[in-house]
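Friendly challenge for the regulars: who can give me the structure tokens for this chain first? No prize, just bragging rights.
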Amino acid sequence: MKINVEASELSNKISIVSKTVPSKTIKPIMACILFDVSQKGTYLHATDLETGVKARVECETDSEGRFAVDAKILYEIVKTLPNEGKIQLNFSSGLLALECGRSKFRVPTMDPSEFPEISLPSEGYALDIESKTLSEMIERVIFCAAKDEFMRNLNGVFWEIGNGFLRLVASDGFRLALAEERLSTQSESSFLISLKSMKELQSIVQSCSETNITIHYDGKRLSLSTPNIETVMRVVEIDFPDYRKVLPKAFKSKVIFSKNDLIEALRRTMVIARRGSESVKVEVGEDILSLSSRSPDSGEVNEELPIRKEGEDIVAAFNPLFLMEALRHIHTDEVEFNFVDSTSPLQINPLNVEGYLYIVMPIRIV
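First reply, four minutes later:
Bragging rights claimed.
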């Protein structure tokens, strides 16, 4: 079997599917990419049993067949070849020969029958979303998910579809991010996707050249499809905490200020904060927001910036890194802080932009 393919096309598709190949596996076949050539087209398959990816390759072939080749070796070979011109792959007698210009490789393959099948959901419901929109939603919440895999109910991103909206929510117990987008669907469901799967999904969506993505959910699996890329992943069968319980119902103080001014003030404040209690005290006055931190061994710092305020004066303390990460995921010039009191969650919003909010828990003032 011969395959003739543009070097850039093969490199791009291998790069997409190889991100799903597990770094460590007991079964050698799991470290492979499966080539599947049929009348339906040429596809590359990769899976870690939790997430599976199929990528269609635009190429010329002379026959049908299947073979599996080590993903790491193949990725390194293709990356070292010129990204222009064509690559010829010739599979015969268990060996794969690759030729590009004056470069020739021969690598062993594995029995394709051992490769796990990747099948998309055939039941459930489907909805469409712009790939750029989904990419932005994932980027705005994924950083809040718990990194500890033993916290299974927080080690992922919660998907909620209902009332014509798609909502993505992530929390590590100290902060929470929520992004939502209106969709033309009446379907209702909710499920948790692991952080590992979400990172793979984020990489695939970011590299997607298609304008729209079709989401399909059957109660057990979630798939995202474009004409050239298909991704399927298992949902985590565990309940995500009721995030609505931590969303403040009313506020006593609203503060509006320049996002970049606060980011720069936090950068300076963190020089001392990270050497002390890793906290910053936030004092809201009539038209000034003051940030301060102190360390017994490294000194103290105070920063002030102008604000527009509605409501009461507030004094509270927060982890400055949590505030900084929230601000970096907001794309408006001005930001809104909504306070209840010194012991209640703070809600952060982009000014006059709906669809994204960030909650951070206060810490004890020291």
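The first helix runs from residue 7 to 18. The chain has three domains: 2-114, 125-245, 247-360. Your move, everyone else.
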